[in-house]
Amino acid sequence: MAAELYTSFFGFSERPFTLLPDPDFLFWSENHSRAFSVLEYGIATRSPLTVVTGEIGAGKTTLIQKLLSALDEDVTIGLISNAQGGRGELLRWVLYALGINAHSQDDYITLFKRFQDFVINEYAEGRHVVLVIDEAQNLSIEALEELRMFTNINSNKDELLQLILVGQPELRDIVASPALAQFAQRVTATYHLKPLDFKQTKAYIQHRLMHVGGTGNEISVYAIKSIFDESGGVPRMINKLCDLALVYAASSENRVVGINVMRELVADGLFIKTRDHGVYVLENPVKPSLDKAAE
Asked: Which residues form the AAA+ ATPase domain (predicted)?
């Protein structure tokens, strides 16, 4: 396998640029630190609604996983990813995330009472419930308004239920729409996660290289500048380009990814750069020389 070839070639303990969210690799850029502080603030102050947005691949899910791993035992978490649908369907997603039984024949009132009883019982046991909704931009206006109604479970003095919404930039526009005026009023903390600048991109790449046992200099500064230009500073896109660049370098037995490797990679057309700098790598990108190098 190409990836195994380059990890062995460079002496890495594992691939430094996988696409799966991994809190162990988290790079604390200024933006990521602030976004995490907003999430922590929301939890600490029992904010009814906290909203964090960012471009695709900006690191939102990784931040959420880091947050969940750091929460105290007095917090009951329900994590919902890619929920879709309108009123009623969302409630079933919520019940499933919290491990609450929901039968197909149960009507909405029965399901909501089951949810409300769960939240109140958790509070009586000294815990409060936090619902994290990832990819929240997929929710309809009706579903978001239903989430606001969920917060009515809270008492006058104590917050029994908190909601954290994480999504792409369009989530901000949705929340700001006139139809969700009451929803927006309950948002206590919000933050938009921006792409990395060049300095941060350089530090990010070196951080991940050193995390797997590298020196941090396996990718030259000129190559990093090319990676930044092609990726727009979006971490997931940086990972895709770095991963391919290391494959190319190893196949040619180059110990350093230089600008020539990046030029070759770009010229081979293994990815498509969209208008907003999103990069989509084509499936099974295999460079002919890899077969020879692997023999």
From this structure: 46-190
